[in-house]
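User: I'm new to structure prediction. If I give you an amino acid sequence, what do you actually give back? Let's try with this one:
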Amino acid sequence: MNALPDRRLNAYRPDLAEEALRGVVTAERFTAGAPAHVSLPVAPLRPRPDITTGIDTELLYGEAVRVLDRAGGWCWVKSEFDGYVGYVPDEAVTDSPVTITHVLAVPRSFAYTGPDLKTPSAFPLSLGSGLTIVGESETRGTRYFQLQSGHSIVAAHCVPAGARIADDYVSVAGRLLETPYLWGGRSAFGIDCSGLVQLAMMMTGRTVPRDSDMQASGLGSSIERSELKRGDLVFWKGHVAIMEDEKTIIHANGHTMSVAREGLEEAIERIGWLYQQPTGYRRP
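Assistant: Good question. You get back a string of structure tokens that encode the predicted 3D arrangement of the chain. For your 284 residues, that looks like this:
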């Protein structure tokens, strides 16, 4: 009997499935879904429509999704960025047409109620958030962009959509040092190990798988430990770290509960009692 597709990347239930799975899974009906965008600063994505269920990942402000179903205050969605499937609160997405013109290029910033840092902040934004800029102004020498929502953001914190903020994704990861660890997190407010890899690479123009097992099996090519250099990845069962240089890693981890630097040898020894030795090394 054929195994069912990975539920993280394939939307199917007994009553409904995405159109791409027609002939692959059995469902009462199929849908192509409807386009929408994330309207909260960060939207936790869960495997079930249950607020007490742990999150699988997060969607960032402005990211595109396809809404497959709406019911009971929840939206069943599929990310257009990495294909992840899950449930978000109904208020987390908007059907209003959105054209992303810019992306937040600093770890964290604020949308203000007006084009002035002295006006109240409306909501925070994470690195990688997608923004729709409809105007600009200047207050006391600082340029502000006006968002489609009517809020304002410091223009210097943004880059045009599609632009890279760096060529080296390790430097992006380094800007997130001391970010709190969050299981399933994918933002500069809280992030997990594979979320750090994905977000840092996203800001250099790359789309990579979300979870560490996906990254371990499909990202780049396998290498030997003796070949490790800056930018390579070290994998354990359920964990991934980024090589900052031949001896040092950067990783979001549950030991420091943050994004931190650590010596590779020290990490291998510390992690070994619980997760054994690294399972592989890859060059993305």
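You can read the tokens as a compact description of the fold. Here is one thing that stands out. The domain at 102-160 is CATH 2.30.30.40 (SH3 type barrels.).
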